[in-house]
Amino acid sequence: MSPNDVLLPGGRDVRGTLDADDATTCVVACPPHPQHRGHRGDARLVAVSDALAERGTDCLRFDYGDWDEGYGEREDARNAVRWAAERYDRVGLFGYSFGGAIALLAGATVDRGVAAVSVLAPAPALADDLDAAAALADLHCPAQVVYGERDDTVDSTPVAAAARERGDEVVELSADHFFVGNHDRIGERVDEFFAGALPG
């Protein structure tokens, strides 16, 4: 394992990469669907991590354990938050697509404080009892929802509507689900959100 590799706690084999520079804040980044080749090296997660690093915020990007229909993946994210909470003053969550739903579901149920959650093109639900849009009601921190107005892969509008009801920031970009050509812009918008929500 390289110095930046992390083996996360819990009963599942979950490994991550810590993009670190001795910060007091960290954002845990949840990748897209693992059965659709989603992984911690996803270009959108890397763009967010790079933008955070420029401001001095660490980022923990991780891969899920064995596929568990969203349930085990939610626990993977919660364990990543617990790991980060032992090492940082403030912890945020970010996720893209499937990972956006996981970030909301984990942030609403983890037993450690999450200071802010940002999601990109989040799936509205993974199962009847894994409703990401509904999870916003149980989230006790600021949230940001970024989605593409031309996204015909995932309908993020239920999550965006729930966020608007809470008074959270909602950003609509002229993009499809994959945000081709928009990665730097995504990094900037997400970093701006965390700069206000995770000062330090």
Essential attributes:
200 residues, 8-stranded mixed sheet, alpha/beta, single chain, 34% helix, Rossmann fold
List the helices and strands and how they pair.
Layout: E1 5-7, E2 15-19, E3 25-30, H1 43-55, E4 58-62, H2 71-85, E5 90-96, H3 98-109, E6 116-120, E7 125-127, E8 130-131, H4 132-135, E9 143-148, H5 157-166, E10 169-173, H6 183-197
Helix pairs in contact: 1-6, 2-3
Structure, explained:
This protein is an alpha/beta fold and 200 residues long. It has a single domain, classed as 3-Layer(aba) Sandwich (Rossmann fold), CATH 3.40.50.1820. It is built from 6 helices and 10 strands, in the order E-E-E-H-E-H-E-H-E-E-E-H-E-H-E-H. The protein has helices spanning 43-55, 71-85, 98-109, 132-135, 157-166, 183-197, and strands at residues 5-7, 15-19, 25-30, 58-62, 90-96, 116-120, 125-127, 130-131, 143-148, 169-173. Strands 1-2-4-3-5-6-9-10 form an 8-stranded mixed sheet, sandwiched between helices. A two-stranded antiparallel sheet has the order 7-8. Helix 1 crosses helix 6. The protein is globular and about 40 Å long.
